[in-house]
UniProtKB/TrEMBL annotation:
<feature type="binding site">
    <location>
        <position position="249"/>
    </location>
    <ligand>
        <name>3'-phosphoadenylyl sulfate</name>
    </ligand>
</feature>
<dbReference type="InterPro" id="IPR037359">
    <property type="entry name" value="NST/OST"/>
</dbReference>
<dbReference type="Pfam" id="PF00685">
    <property type="entry name" value="Sulfotransfer_1"/>
</dbReference>
<dbReference type="InterPro" id="IPR000863">
    <property type="entry name" value="Sulfotransferase_dom"/>
</dbReference>
<feature type="binding site">
    <location>
        <position position="241"/>
    </location>
    <ligand>
        <name>3'-phosphoadenylyl sulfate</name>
    </ligand>
</feature>
<keyword id="KW-0325">Glycoprotein</keyword>
<keyword id="KW-0808">Transferase</keyword>
<protein>
    <submittedName>
        <fullName>Sulfotransferase</fullName>
    </submittedName>
</protein>
<feature type="active site" description="For sulfotransferase activity">
    <location>
        <position position="132"/>
    </location>
</feature>
<feature type="domain" description="Sulfotransferase">
    <location>
        <begin position="125"/>
        <end position="385"/>
    </location>
</feature>
<dbReference type="GO" id="GO:0008146">
    <property type="term" value="F:sulfotransferase activity"/>
</dbReference>
């Protein structure tokens, strides 16, 4: 009786193991041999596995870029042990100064594997942000172009997720690219529909794919390395807006979403003061040299769960990070086009023509895009309007950063926010 039960149990375990093995085999083959993708990635993936043994020392470490996930990862991190196992001391200078967590941010790019011709279009261009500067309007206008594939969602946020593959040896380009392409298969089916069975592009209409993720510019301490290691050919687009107006738009947006979900709203002054304190503790405001400033910005980015309402408007710090990394990757700075949001709103078609020229796309007359995409107005404008005193405080704070931005981008006088009265959009 006992033997019979043992025999049945063993048999059941055997059957389960066989089922599991078959499932794993099926999943692996469908991942790499999707019928949509006639180019088999098996060989390259196999080579990759050989080169990066999955032992403990080189286990992939997924790092997110701020947000709640950080707290979860912190729970198992060596850093937690060092801090005595207690909760993450969010507000201590010690945490912000510590570089323990950063040791995993190894910027070495491990590159191998074959890249097919069509992959250079996935994506061809990335819109980096900035948040609340008209990214929806620019995305929509690019999607209108017959040679730009329309994506399913506005934003993909691949490089600020935990999907890029990092090992202790560095960023793994091939594995990250494979994950990126598979995200685009869901995100941009229109592009993949034009691949024929041999994996070549249909000659009649060679489309390109764009990605738009407004947080990429903010996380400038780590995203450019990830992007340039994974898709080094890509072109960058960036929209910037008077940082004071940008902050006001972000506040209105947050106000509306908090109101909709019944959450209490913090007041303007506290919101600004909290972020100023973080900028101060991280050392951004006091940095004397570019090296100090770069490190301070990195520290500031390590602070999870912050809206970064002030820091987001310090565009020059973020752009300098991008340019410096582009230099390191021997990528021409002319592969970055920065548009001024206010100008784009007023001269949409002419700025659009410049964008098309920058991308090497044929001219196209915009049909639908107006200057009101994703506008965040609130019926209670008196509550959401930025108080005059804060406006002055921020104007003063941003002035030197804006000045550096104008110099970096060689902006004409009529584009400069605090030197001339840049025409404000009509509400
Ligand atoms: N064509 C054009 N050019 C420039 N700016 C425009 C344009 N269309 C809309 N908008 C204004 O852009 C603000 C929304 O920006 P985003 O689309 O980047 O928002 S988001 O970051 O993706 O949430 C939002 O600003 P506010 O209305 O001040 O909130 C939009 O009104």
């Amino acid at each position: 009786m006992h033997h019979r039960r043992l025999y049945r149990a063993r048999k059941a375990v055997g059957v389960i193991i066989v089922i599991l093995m078959v499932r794993i085999l099926l999943e692996t083959s469908s991942r790499y041999k999707s019928s949509e993708d006639p180019i088999s990635l098996d060989v390259a993936t196999h080579e990759t596995k050989k080169q990066i043994p999955t032992n403990k020392a080189t286990k992939p470490i997924h790092l997110s870029n701020g947000g709640g996930g950080f707290q979860k990862r912190y729970a198992d991190s060596p850093f937690r042990k060092q801090m005595g196992g207690g909760p993450l001391p969010l507000d201590t200078a010690d945490f912000l100064q510590s570089e323990t967590m950063w040791k995993y941010l190894n910027d070495t790019c491990i590159e191998e594997g074959h890249i097919a011709e069509w992959q250079y279009r996935v994506p061809y261009v990335i819109l980096l942000g900035a948040m609340k500067c008209g990214t929806h309007a620019l995305t929509e206008s690019l999607w209108e172009h017959p040679l730009v594939a329309r994506n399913r969602y506005w934003e993909l946020h691949f490089f600020d997720s935990d999907k890029p593959v990092r090992t202790e040896k560095g960023i793994h380009a091939h594995q990250t690219r494979t994950a990126y392409i598979s995200a685009f298969r869901r995100h941009s089916p229109e592009f993949f529909a034009q691949l024929d069975n041999n994996g070549t592009l249909n000659d009649k209409k060679k489309m390109i794919v764009m990605e738009s993720s407004p947080r990429y510019i903010l996380n400038s301490d780590r995203i450019p390395q990830l992007i340039l290691c994974t898709v080094p050919w890509v072109k960058f687009l960036l929209l910037v807006r008077d940082p004071v107006d940008r902050a006001e738009s972000q506040f209105r947006y947050l106000y509306a979403s908090r109101l909709a979900t019944g959450k209490p709203m913090v007041d303007w002054q506290r919101w600004i003061d909290d972020d100023l304190r973080l900028l101060q503790v991280a050392g951004v405001l006091q940095a004397k040299t570019r090296d100090e400033e770069r490190l301070a910005w990195k520290r500031y980015q390590r602070r999870p769960n912050s809206d970064m309402i002030v820091g987001r408007g310090m565009y020059v710090l973020q752009l300098l990070d991008y340019f410096e990394i582009m230099d390191q990757y021997n990528k021409s700075r002319s592969d970055m086009l920065v548009l001024q949001s206010e100008r784009f709103r007023r001269h949409q078609q002419s700025d659009y023509n410049n964008v098309l020229q920058f991308l090497g796309l044929p001219p196209f007359a915009l049909q639908n895009v107006t200057g009101s995409i994703h506008a965040t107005h609130h019926k209670d404008e008196a509550v959401t309007a930025m108080p005059g005193s804060i406006k002055e405080q921020l104007k003063h704070l941003y002035r030197p950063y804006n000045k550096r931005l104008y110099a970096l981008l060689k902006w004409r006088k009529d584009l400069r926010w605090d030197e001339t009265q840049v025409a404000r959009p009509q509400q």
